[in-house]
Amino acid sequence: MNGAASAIGEGDVIASVDLGSNSFHMLVARYELGSLQIIDRMREMVRLAAGLGDDGSLDEAYRGRALACLSRFGQRLSGLPTTRVRAVATNTVRRLADPRAFLDGAEHELGHAIEVAPGREEARLIYLGVAHAFPRLPGRRLVVDIGGGSTEFIIGEGLDALETESLQMGCVVSTKHLFPDGSITRKRWSRARTEIAVELRQFAPVYRARGWSEAIGSSGTIKALGSISRELGAGDWVVTRDSLSQIREVIVAAGHVDNIRLPDLSEQRRPVIAGGAVILDAVFEVLQLERMLISESALREGLLWDMIGRAEQRDPRERAVAAWSRRYAVDLEQARRVEATAISMFEQVRRTWGLDDAAEAWLRFASRLHEIGLAVAHSQHHLHAAYLVEHGDLPGFSSQEKQILAFLLHTQRRGPAAAMQRLAELPERVQQPVVAVAVLLRLAIRLHRARSDEALPAMELRASGSSLRLAIDESWLDARPLTRADLEQERKLLSNADFRLVLGAA
After folding, report:
1. Which residues lie closer than 8 Å to 264 by C-beta, 6 or more apart?
2. Dihedral in degrees, nearest 10, Cα atoms 426, 431, 433, 435
3. Which pick of 47, 58, 92, 399 has the fewest CB atoms within 10 Å?
């Protein structure tokens, strides 16, 4: 899980992995002169969504297929450092009853951490990839991405996504749901399009009010429909209302998904093209489109550009945290005090506890947002803060990062023992650094309870396993009995969570 990424220099090689609901993609690129030079790519149609049960279970055959694919990807990526690889899972993994059970094996085979992107974060990354592929297109653009398990809708301008939506519909799940026995009739098609249109109309008025100068489609389904449209005379890299109508008529006339014969349609794509085509048919109708350009770039390219943005101090998480600080009227001076002290302590124990840039980023973000729960109520404000982060939209944050941030905010005060139960929900590899960061955050908050700009005395921290020795000037503590009492109470509370805090004189 990448945090504050180190600089990406000229000639550096970076990679992204997209665990889609239909296909898995791997992209390896070299950063040259401000652009990406693709040097390798792999794609396998795993069709993970087809193995998803109604109860959130994953069929063993599809799990095995996914792990085998990731093992092959892992061989190609074995020479790259973890800071140069980002892997993201999307809709199907989001819907698993126990995503951790799948991810543990998946990460082992890939050899790198795998993030789970929330729907709107997936949309943002898709837009970033598309926007870099169409840098000179003026005005706002509508981007539609039909995946295997979900469809993302974005309105953006330049490199910024302005509106993002993610709906639970995709070429695999929609074919399975709308045409369960494979039979296709005109009545079924009309009913399917109406069902999808009802979902689209929830946000269509907002999108039409925003407006766009051009519509762009991305990912496999729309690229396939674009290739078919080209063969039908629509032109290169475009789907038109007329070509989509022709495609619809051929599919309906076929009568069954197995009988669909369209020009340039691959055998792999044939079983799921009906679900994807009916989604796009409804999109054209509800959003009143006449044509849609086709983008070669999507989520995997967006991941690479997001890595570069983080490395060049254009981290979308920074903007998201700043926006939330304003929204929830955070006392910015207090947040600054807590962050400065927390990071000062972090630097003293970084090496001993093996903390990396990602852990530093968690501590910075938690310090800035630790008081957002006060906007709800002072009582239990740490719980309110954790709930807001866990269930809110934070652009740039993966699902795991939101879980980590929610854990840190939950454990910032009161007895941490109960909150530690949430630790098991996190990947095992991050549990130790997350606990370390939680302890540092708690201490920084305690030390700044007075909300004063008075400088703290020099402190010396020594870490060892699940213990921390804090040495601080005794005379300073003698003059501040409340702070001394707070630290003594903190020592007792942490001991209940099997963590040893030792207080000593500097």
Report:
1. 227, 228, 230, 231
2. 100
3. 399
Strand-pair partners of 87: 17, 114
Task: Tell me how far CA of residue 36 lies from CA of 17, 73, 129, 145, in angstroms.
Answer: 16, 20, 11, 22
C-alpha distances out from residue 356 to 84, 284, 335, 436, 453, Å: 14, 47, 22, 12, 29
Q: Which of 85, 19, 3, 5 is nearest to 52 (CA)?
A: 19
Expressed in percent and rounded to 5, the helix, strand and coil fractions of the chain are: 55, 20, 30
Token pair in block for residue 55: 């109860």
Q: How far is CA 122 from the centre of its chain?
A: 6
pTM of the entire predicted model: 0.89
Phi, psi of 335 (to 5 degrees): -60, -40
* Nearest Cα to Cα of residue 95 among 58, 120, 46: 58
8-state DSSP, 500 = E
- Report pLDDT digits (tens) over 61-104: 999 999 999 999 999 999 899 999 999 999 999 999 999 999 99
Please state, in angstroms and rounded to a whole number, the distance separating the CA atoms of residues 462 and 471. 9
| 3-state per-residue secondary structure call for 288-351 | CCCEEEECCCCHHHHHHHHHHHHHCCCCHHHHHHHHHHHHCCCCHHHHHHHHHHHHHHHHHHHH
